[in-house]
Write a structure and sequence with these properties.
Strand order of the largest sheet: 1-2-3
Radius of gyration: 37 Å
Order of helices and strands: HHHHHHEEE
Number of helices: 6
Structural class: alpha+beta
Number of strands: 3
Shape: rod-shaped
Strand content: 5-15%
Length: about 170
């Protein structure tokens, strides 16, 4: 029984002496205190979660940021075009004749583009307008007017919106 206790105390001394953080490097690297300090620094786990999070999160957040930026830009362009389409459709149906209606609708889109800050795209031809009528002449009672505005964002992306208005049955 005394022999067993002696072995366990010898084992405890060995672990305490040689397998502490600073002593482990002395066993494997010699008695260099500088090597022991370097290994202590490398084995220190403080802040490792922050570093791991940064290394994993940055590559994941960059594509997410790019996607959200593209989505926000596209939504902004779509809202601007939807506003222009609604206003031009309203101007169209309140006109007195077909000739003046087409002129008024295109003027509303041009002036609205200036107010919304997209006049350059309108002047460059990136914004196109199409007006469809359910009945000819367009300005006739209960005629359905559809104004469609399209805008090229780049070679692959295009935003297209439509607005529908009805001519008054008493027109």
């Amino acid at each position: 029984r005394s022999c067993h206790c002696r072995k366990s105390t010898m084992r405890a001394r060995f672990f305490n002496k040689y397998l502490t953080l600073g002593r482990r490097s002395e066993i494997f690297r010699g008695n260099s205190r500088r090597g022991a300090r370097q290994e202590n620094w490398f084995e220190n786990q403080e802040g490792s979660a922050s570093v791991e999070f940064a290394l994993l999160a940055i590559p994941l957040f960059i594509p997410l940021y790019i996607f959200m930026n593209i989505f926000a830009t596209t939504s902004d362009h779509q809202n601007a075009l939807r506003t222009l389409a609604r206003e031009s459709a309203r101007a169209f149906v309140t006109s007195s004749s077909d000739e003046s209606a087409f002129v008024v609708a295109s003027d509303v889109v041009e002036k609205g583009a200036q107010l919304l800050g997209i006049q350059d795209e309108f002047q460059d031809g990136d914004i196109s307008m199409q007006i469809n009528c359910s009945i000819r002449p367009c300005i006739s009672p209960d005629s359905k007017i559809t104004v469609t505005l399209s805008r090229r964002l780049d070679s692959q992306n295009k935003v297209e919106v439509s607005a529908i208005e009805y001519v008054s049955p008493w027109a």
